[in-house]
Amino acid sequence: MERSLESLLAWWDVSGVDVPDIPQNTPRRLPTQTATDKKPAAPKSSSPAPRKPETPNAPKSAAAEALVRKIENLDQLRLAISEFDAGEISDHARQSVFARGNPKADIMVIGEAPGRDEDIQGKPFVGKSGQLLDRIFASIGLNEDTIYITNVINWRPPGNRNPTPEEIEACLPLIHKHIELVAPKIIVLVGGVSFSALTGMTGIMKNRGQWTTLKLGDLEIPTLPIYHPAFLLRQPALKKDSWLDMLSLRGQIEALK
Ligand code: URA
Questions:
Q1: Which among 89, 98, 112, 228 is the best mutation to test ligand 1's pocket, defined by most ligand atoms within 8 Å of the CB?
Q2: Residue nearest to atom 3 of ligand 1 (CA)
Q3: For residues 47 and 224, what is the distance between their CA atoms, to the nearest angstrom?
Q4: Is the N or the C terminus of the chain less surrounded, counting Cβ atoms within 10 Å?
Q5: Residues 6+ apart with CB under 8 A from 54
Q6: CATH code of residue 140
Q7: Pocket test for ligand 1, best of 95, 98, 125 (most atoms within 8 A of CB)
Q8: What is the pLDDT of residues 112-138, one digit of tens each?
Q9: How far apart, in whole angstroms, are the C-alpha atoms of residue 210 and residue 194?
């Protein structure tokens, strides 16, 4: 495949975008990065990553499940996450990144994983893409008083690589508990990784702007997938879609009143 096309497809893949079919001898997932403030990494192997957790990570997910059973509030969850051993990601991160915004807000915004700035500051979405995300929400009058922001993964993956499917799976009990404790009226999933991790569906390009329902215990929460701001920084023409998504979000907020 031509290099320029290959790198374009890699970037789309990096951004959580559905890529067109690639010839058989090329791995479908190129360098496994997604829609954060990240640069594409060199491919580690020619075979795609396995979907199911492998043995070393299975106990991590079990550990997270056991941990959250005892948790009764957000302070306890924050503390438990800060002490949790999530393997390589928590070993290498400066600190865990929990959340920012108003935990009593109706809207919970969930991204993928912290990047460099978030790792330094200990807050989600504070780098360049976070600033764009703030502006996107500000376009319909939302801010830290009216939204609550977190990520599926609470640690910056080393070298800004993608979280692996196993790491995502291992951390799912933590984000599920986080959602249960906040019990938002609306969830916004930012980017393909967060969309797939929490809904089990794939394809942010075809699903962005399409409301779905996230079911978690007794909760049934209207959920809107949107493009990741890191992707929009590279594809500014698609910001018009994000505007439509914000109008749709505003409509849903109005319907709550
Ligand atoms: N990208 C994310 O998905 N989350 C962050 O917190 C920062 C960048």
A1: 112
A2: 112
A3: 32
A4: C
A5: 166
A6: 3.40.470.10
A7: 125
A8: 999 999 999 999 999 999 999 999 999
A9: 15
The count of structural domains within the chain is: 1
Give residue 24 CA to ligand 1 midpoint distance, Å: 32
Residue 133 resides in a domain: yes
Whole-model pTM: value is 0.79
Distances (CA, A) of 154 to 12, 132, 190: 24, 20, 15
Q: From ligand 1's centre to the CA of 230, what distance in Å?
A: 9
What is the predicted pLDDT for the residue at 234? 97
Structure tokens at 243: 């505007």
pLDDT of residue 59: 54
Q: Is residue 202 part of a domain?
A: yes
Residue 54 covered by a domain:
no
Report whether pLDDT(238) > 90: yes
In a domain, 45, yes or no: no
**Residue 90 corresponds to which amino acid?**
S
